[in-house]
From TrEMBL:
Its job: Involved in protein export. Acts as a chaperone by maintaining the newly synthesized protein in an open conformation. Functions as a peptidyl-prolyl cis-trans isomerase.
Gene: tig
GO CC terms of this entry: cytoplasm
Catalytically driven reaction(s): [protein]-peptidylproline (omega=180) = [protein]-peptidylproline (omega=0)
Name of protein: Trigger factor
Class of enzymatic activity (EC top level): isomerase
Amino acid sequence: MAVNVETLDKLERKITLELPLEAIQKEVDARLKRLQRQVRMDGFRPGKVPLSVVAQRYGASVHYEVVSDQVGQAFADAVAEAQLRVAGQPRITEKEPATQGMLAFEAVFEVYPEVKLGDLSALELEKVEAAVDEAAVERTLEILRKQRRTFTPRAEGEPAQDGDRVTIDFEGKIDGEPFAGGKASDFRFVLGEGQMLAEFENAVRGMKVGESKTFPLAFPQDYPGREVAGKTADFLVTVKKIEQQHLPEVNEAFVKSLGIEAGTEEALREDIRRNLERELKFRLQARNKVTALEALAQAAELDLPKAAVEAEIDRLIESARQDLKQRGIQNAEQAPMPREVFQEQAERRVRLGLVVAELIKTHDLRATEEQVDAHIRELAASYEQPEEVVRWYKSSPERLGEIRAIVLENNVADFIFSKAKVTSKALTFAELMGA
């Protein structure tokens, strides 16, 4: 039977569905009879409740279930026959039937758009390149040493300097009034490592044990604590202890403590370099992938289905609430989440998803099992027991699916770069990782 599809808007369609009342009642009767064999009621033995009693109690809900099921099936059959790709859930409402003995419904829904891909050869893309230099290896080695450093008290009367661990009491006030988080006792931090605001560290630097100081501190406008952002506080600080740091020597014991059996500095530096090169590769892929996919999306022509955008907004809001929960924010479920805040991001995601899907279909791009396996092994290589990590990924269809999606996106980006006009931009390791 031909399906009459009415176009309401660019992507909005309407279909009228009709269901025979006789078929609906037949299915209702069949379900009530099955229910009769299972239902339990006071005064009746199991399976012996009269059908009329079952119908009186459950008839309305069973009728609703049958109509819902049959309307859903009729809608699925209709869009399949009309070869429509439905975006989001349809809005189905009952209407007056055109034929006696029928129930009629209108289904209003959106379809996925036709996507016109842009000319990839006309795209002008900048591809970032970088390499692991000796400075990056040296910085990483220093980080490893700092992770295993020790501290001993400074000699009496020696002032605090960068690298020292200081223990202090402090109290801050704004306009003479204390504020949340502005007071602490026996607070410990390492000078010169950016753990505190620069003005705070500058005030403590050079102080001695037992010394107190009052100084002003201007909180930045973008400071995470909203109640103090952009305001100036007066802090009273008292130094209680100053300890100087001692970095371990890069010797055989130190190297072996990091899992490098050779025990040499050369072997340690080579291991650091390999890990940094893996990290660099992933960072380059991620950054260049964003460049390629954004250019692809901007060059394409399509209309966005509103239902898909609304569904994406729902996902973004749920993700934001989960993030608040993980941060320990109370009443995260009730936190205000204006939908318009997520509108632009949702539209960008939907657009990109539709365009990438079209490119994959048009050029038959795919992630091979060899590529997926290689990516997993590359991720696992930085762990102490890589084979266990490989098994962990491969034991879960969900985790495997995530890896397959990443590999496919990488293939898409490589394909775009292979067709576009590309210029290279060299960055240092520090510039790339800092970005």
